[in-house]
Each structure stands twice: as structure tokens, then as C-alpha cells.
Write a structure and sequence with these properties.
Elements lengths: L2 H13 L3 H16 L4 H27 L21 H7 L3 H4 L3 E5 L6 H14 L4 E5 H13 L3 H10 L2 E7 L6 H14 L4 E6 L6 H4 L3 H13 L1 E5 L16
Parallel strand pairs: 1-4, 1-5, 2-3, 3-4
Bound molecules: adenosine-5'-diphosphate and magnesium ion.
GO biological process, one term: DNA replication
Protein name: AAA family ATPase
Pfam families: IstB_IS21
């Protein structure tokens, strides 16, 4: 490629906002002539640089928008520490087939067993595939809904949270939920029911949800909708947070 053609091509690629193609132009041109590739093969190679870069950027911004508490993935999870968890089952959820069926996942177990880690990992997988995903602590979610209600924009806020293809509500039950908040939570769960998937993490057995929500009626209405199409992953192992503090006995 002569210098003038190269300069004009660079100029065009810059004007068309294709910086990766501009960056790799001379390298691809050299590769094409060294390997006697066709024009279309060369063009494919060059456009792949731009397409890959844009896809990576889009995935990165989806992960950022997901507001995950940390960037932990399934590869970072030590399944041998928590033998009660079926590794294969978790990897199956990580294929995101449950999203196609609008199914929910519920991670149930005591503190420190990896509920948030696993929920986050699956959420990050979804975000990387550019599926709209959002992570929020239950208490923050309730605060936001309550504030929206007091400002007469509850419907907008409910709609906002019901749009996510995947919503991860973390730490349900760590704090008691009063009557008003229970109703707000019900409204959101009802809007998402059979339309979108939700991942919940909780330390409260379903039989005790009466005591988390204001009364048995609302608790049952929520449970019904959450569990109707749900996979429940019960984790009953040791806390990973305490693993270095627990000495092996005798
Ligand atoms: P939970 O939400 O059940 O209270 P977390 O998922 O927050 O627990 O786990 C507590 C901490 O321990 C996190 O930093 C998490 O990444 C880590 N952790 C928990 N279980 C494992 C595990 N099996 N392998 C690796 N890290 C783990
Ligand atoms: Mg947690």
C-alpha cells in the first residue's frame, strides 16, 4: 500500500470513528500481502478488530452498570470448601438458561457461605452477555422505593426496577421489613413475576418469612410468586469469612 493511500485510509477511518481499524491498518495490510489473502479476508480481519473492541467495551459498561459489590466470578469460587454445593448445578445456572424461562434463583443459607459471591458471579456472566442486570441490597431497594413513594413517583421507580432482565436482590431478611415496605416489595415481585428473572439471597428459611415481612398474608403472596418458577440453592456449610479463624480441633 503506498503512502498516500495509507494516509487517506487513515483519514477516512478516523472520520468514520473506527480507531481500532486505523490502529491495525498497516499490520493487517502487511499480513494480507505476506500471506496472499484476498481483499475480503483482509477486510474481515480488519473489521474484526473494531467489532471485538466495541463488543468488549459494551460488555464492560454493562458490568459497570450492574453495580456489583465486587468482581468475583465462578472461577474464584472454591467449590471444595463448600462441598454441599453442586458445582455442576451452579455452572448450569451460569449458562443463563433460567433467564429464558423467566425463572428465579434463591440462595438460602447462613452468613459467609458464598451466597452473594455466587449471585454476583452469575450476574456478571449475564452483564457480560449484555443482558440488563442490576445488583442491589434488599434494604437499599426498599429505601429507594419508599423515597419514590413519598415523592409521588413510585410507579416510575417500580417500572425502572421491573425492566431489568435480571435483578439481584441481596440480603433479604437481614433487617425486618415493616408493613409499608412489605407491600412495596410485593409490588415489585408481582411486576416481575413470570416476566423477568430475579436472584434473591437470604438467610431466612421460607417458613420464617412471616416474621420478616409484616404479616403472613403478604409473606405468602411474595413467597408464592418468588418460588413458583424458582431454583432454590440451600447452602448449609461453614462461613468462608471465618475459615482462617477456625482451628482444626484436637
Ligand atoms: P454470604 O453472602 O453468604 O454471606 P459471601 O458470598 O459474601 O457470603 O462470602 C463471604 C466472602 O467469602 C466473600 O468475599 C466471598 O467471595 C468469599 N467466599 C465465600 N465462599 C467462598 C468459596 N467457597 N470460595 C471462595 N471464596 C468464597
Ligand atoms: Mg451476602
Amino acid at each position: 500500500m503506498n503512502n498516500s493511500t495509507y494516509q487517506q485510509l487513515c483519514h477516512n477511518l478516523e472520520a468514520l470513528k473506527l480507531p481500532q481499524m486505523q490502529l491495525h491498518l498497516s499490520e493487517v495490510a502487511d499480513f494480507v500481502s505476506a500471506n496472499s489473502l484476498s481483499f475480503s479476508e483482509g477486510l474481515l480481519k480488519l473489521t474484526n478488530f473494531e467489532a471485538d473492541y466495541k463488543a468488549e467495551n459494551a460488555a464492560r459498561s454493562m458490568v459497570k452498570a450492574g453495580a456489583f459489590p465486587h468482581h468475583k466470578e465462578l472461577e474464584d469460587f472454591d467449590f471444595s470448601f463448600q462441598p454441599g454445593i453442586n458445582r455442576q448445578e451452579i455452572f448450569e445456572y451460569n449458562t443463563l438458561r433460567f433467564l429464558e424461562e423467566n425463572e428465579n434463583l434463591v440462595f438460602l443459607g447462613p452468613s459467609g457461605v458464598g451466597k452473594t459471591h455466587l449471585a454476583t458471579s452469575i450476574g456478571i456472566t449475564a452483564a457480560k452477555k449484555r443482558i440488563s442486570t442490576y445488583f442491589i441490597k434488599c434494604n437499599d431497594l426498599l429505601q429507594q422505593l419508599k423515597k419514590a413513594k413519598s415523592e409521588n413517583r413510585l410507579n416510575d421507580r417500580l417500572k425502572h426496577f421491573s425492566k431489568y432482565r435480571l435483578l439481584i436482590i441481596d440480603e433479604l431478611g437481614y433487617l425486618p421489613i415493616n408493613k409499608e415496605d412489605s407491600n412495596l416489595f410485593f409490588q415489585l415481585i408481582d411486576m416481575r413475576y413470570e416476566k423477568k428473572s430475579t436472584i434473591l439471597t437470604t438467610n431466612i428459611n421460607f417458613s420464617d418469612w412471616d416474621s420478616v415481612f409484616y404479616d403472613a398474608v403478604v409473606a405468602n403472596a411474595i413467597l408464592d410468586r418468588v418460588l413458583h418458577h424458582a431454583h432454590v440453592i440451600t447452602i448449609s456449610g461453614k462461613s468462608y469469612r471465618l475459615k482462617d479463624h477456625i482451628q482444626t480441633e484436637n
